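I hope you will forgive my troubling you with a question about protein structure. I should value your view on which stretches of the chain appear to form regular backbone elements. Here, with my thanks, is the record as I have it:
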Amino acid sequence: MDRTNPQTMTEYAELEQALGLVFCDKSLLQRALTHRSYLNEHPDFSFEDNERLEFLGDAVLDFVTGEYLYHRFPELREGALTSLRSALVRRETLARFAQQLDLGSQLLMGYGEAETGGRERPAILCAAFEALVGAIYLDQGLETVQRFIEPIIGPEVVHILQEHLDKDAKSLLQELAQARMQRTPRYVTIAENGPDHAKEFTVQVTIGGVAYGQGTGRSKQQAAQAAAQAALERLQSEVLAAEEAGLEATPLPEEV
């Protein structure tokens, strides 16, 4: 389906059927599905991109998932609830939700971005899902957002708990780095890009002075988690290779 041109009313109806709701203001849905690359190629397009809705949807998602977890798990302490919510709203999880709804194919996107895999890019899918939540909130309010979100996050909560995915990447990386290398990971923000309302941060993590991972996110915390995940995957691969070769972990030299 061609998504380098705006959707028709029929195509809106198909998407709304998949979402299980009908928008009163179709322009909000159009905006939620408009990637900034489309405006770069079509500067006269009458709608803005989805970045402001993404900002709003991010905040709404934090609240809705927080309230859902608060009521579902009355026995959990604040720290455990925070970790579980973080696992629910991290980029990879929200990108999967977007894939379940086939949002990638629905995005209004510039030709160049689409040709380089933009419709499958996790960051773009995550942003689209957040923008959609922001649009639903503005169009129909918090209760409709809850009815939309809770059936999606319910099964994911079960999966997260079964697979112990509620422990964040920074914690896992620190445990592994200290156990195998006797070093604590260090995080440095190396870049900040974009306007104030949609700023993107890039964070690098080093262990013993060696760069192990880099990540981006809409906050320094999110970027640090992405960097930690990349570093964790690299360090786990190194540990596995060492174990297969029958080698012992060697502590790194003291950092200067």
Q: What stands out?
A: The radius of gyration is 20 Å. The first strand starts at residue 186 and ends at 193.
